[in-house]
Amino acid sequence: LEKMTDLVAVWEVALSDGVHKIEFEHGTTSGKRVVYVDGKEEIRKEWMFKLVGKETFTVGAANTKATINIDAVGGFAYEYTLEINGKSLKKYMENRLKTTNTWILSLGGTDYRVVLEKDTMDVWCNGQKMETAGEFVEDGTETHFSVGDHSCCIKAVSSGKRKEGIIHTLIVDDREIPEAVE
Fold first, then answer.
1. What Gene Ontology cellular-component terms does the record carry (predicted)?
2. CB of 119 within 8 A of CB of 141?
3. Both 73 and 139 in a single domain?
4. Exposed (0-12), middle (13-18) or buried (19+): which is 110, by Cβ within 10 Å?
5. How many Å apart are CA 129 and CA 116, to the nearest integer?
6. DSSP 3-state assignment of 91?
């Protein structure tokens, strides 16, 4: 494996199926462009006469669209920005905080990352979309699923405040799990 001598940018992107590492090599003499997602080569272009431009590829189980923009910032300096679904990484992650809940927990020595997509009520655990069963209860809804031999439930109850909206709580084996901040 050749050494990544032209590595110019590394990003960590938290998606529902996990946190993905995107690495970008840019040879400013050869114009070479290489994109790696989670260590796997996705794009390789050896000789590019145009040193600026963009590379588009997909990330994760849901094939989320990602674009690396290469812009010249005077002389031989370049700026690299990552867009996810057409938004800057910062805007995408801010939006994700509003549309998802994430919990990190350890069960029997194994770490799990559980993500709720609030718009679809899809639940992901360690990269897998979970089979869930939803039910209406007195104070809201419950979404049930299993992780190994552990019973899990995401309770959705109204906060009673319009600005806060619905509060989602993960309960595993009758124990409430605090929400993680990624």
1. cytoplasm
2. no
3. no
4. exposed
5. 10
6. helix
Statement to judge: residues 86 and 139 lie in one domain: no
CATH number for the domain that contains residue 119: 2.40.128.180
Whole-number pLDDT of residue 1: 47
Type of residue numbered 19: V
The CA distance from 101 to 86, in Å, is 22
Q: Residue 49: phi, psi to the nearest 5?
A: -80, -25
CA–centroid distance for 131 within its chain: 20
Contact 175, 159 (CB under 8 A): no
pTM of the model: 0.85
What domain range includes position 76?
Answer: 7-93
Predicted confidence (pLDDT) per residue in 106-130, tens digit: 998 999 999 999 999 999 999 999 9
Least Cα distance to 11 among 86, 93, 72 occurs for: 93
In a domain, 2, yes or no: no
